[in-house]
Amino acid sequence: QVHLVEAGGGWVQPGGSLRLSCAASGNIFSIYAMGWYRQAPGKQRELVAVITSGGTTSYADSVKGRFTISRDNAKNMVYLQMNSLKPEDTAVYYCNARRAVENNWGQGTQVTVSS
Q: Residues 22, 34: contact at Cβ < 8 Å?
């Protein structure tokens, strides 16, 4: 079991930036990938970005070139730098940690982009 706590959400105007963080604790040794998902009202939860234990990153087409996922293994942290934010980025963002035996989720942090 992995415990995840997200932080950094909030309100920002279109074109602005936010940086989300996710702190992992518990059985962190077995994590082979971490990512960020988001869920907007009336929509399914969707993958935003993922980073593997080897450092390979993948992004949803809608955020490519604007968002960057990164890790700090020494601090057991994963981050999502979000630039050039758009109103359609508004959602609850969830941190995810994947192990061979389980999938772990944080409680989520709200990101609101509006003028």
A: yes
